[in-house]
What we know:
The chain is an alpha/beta fold. The chain is about 30% helix and about 20% strand.
Amino acid sequence: MPRTPGSARLSRNEQLPRSVWALLGAGAGLAAASAVAASSSALAAHFARKIVTPERVKAEDQEILAVQGSGTERRVILKSSPDTIVDGEYSLFFAGGTGHVRLGPLEDYTPGDGTVTRRVLAEYSGDLSQAVRGKWSGVVFSSPADLGCAYEEIEFPTELGPAPAWFVPGDAGEHPSTWAIMVHGRGATRSETLRSLIPARRLGLTSLIISYRNDGDAPATADGRYGLGMTEWQDVEDAIAYALAHGAQDVVLFGWSMGGAISLAAADRSSLRQYIRALVLDAPVVDWVDVLAHQAQVNRIPKGIGRFGQFLLAHRWGRRITGLAAPLDFRAMDWVTRAVELRTPTLILHSADDDFVPFGPSALLAGRNPEMVTLETFRKARHTKEWNVDPERWEVAIASWLAQTLAPRPGPGGPMPSSVGTSAGAQGRD
Length: 430
């Protein structure tokens, strides 16, 4: 029976050597593997860029169901979430961040309906009655005036240009020559640190609440990227220089989240580090590798891809992908490994359930260097909301620890050097 053209081709194909079929199969496998590799590399690149790229537009993912009443009786009904069901005072930002209201403690929570009711304590800006979505925040004050503080809008010089700051004079207390310098975290602004004013004023400290490069207020760098503390500490050094030029003899750095990493870097690398008497750190990043691994897990990014994202941030050839002007030195920012090198008295306030910057490294740092590090553990505060959950305990813990730390020392005067010497990351500013 004659063969059709099609059956002839099939017959010839059936007669192809097995080695050819193996090569064809390998080629298909390689193509699939290449596609997977390209996809993984793209995800790692996206993860790396997201870590160091400032977010100018904040997601408003909190649903506002209703606004009732007016004046002191005004209340807002919100869709319940892991954040809104935690008691304490918080803020709601809306209308692209132009609206800001302060909300009181939890008044009603109905799990069945999935709703939360809170009193409106203050309306700083915007029209809440027109808002349908907002951003939940632990930032409860919009300026020092909300705390009854007299203050000035000033600028301090940096290598990139003048950076805005709030200057809040202290009173004639026991520490008239000690200034508090407040350093906010990643994606935040100066207002995040205003809660620190309460214990600082209790001790009579003059406060400088600063901005720093790429935060949207201070001048930006050419690359426009966060250095995760590796570059921002230089602006803290400039703030210290400003304080010293205006009457300070020493300073206390208050660092929040990434501001903790920045403060630690300043105490490590600054040529003025001998003037840093103490660090007060709220939910600080003390090991970026741990934080990035945690964020990869939270965002369901495979471990290998997360590690490759870290690799891109830490190596020179990754700069074209991340946009960084220089690679990041994660070893220098690993204060768990470098625990014994920290020689600045440090108070850490951190919630055990922090869902953004894990608590574990803070506990390890305190355990490995109990001489210098004191840890105050909070619960249910999530990230940087320790004050919101228990303001009295938070304020007393800081004020009492600082009072003891700043107490006059016996012997010759002058600030005690607090640098970490010639450690892995210690070096002066270029």
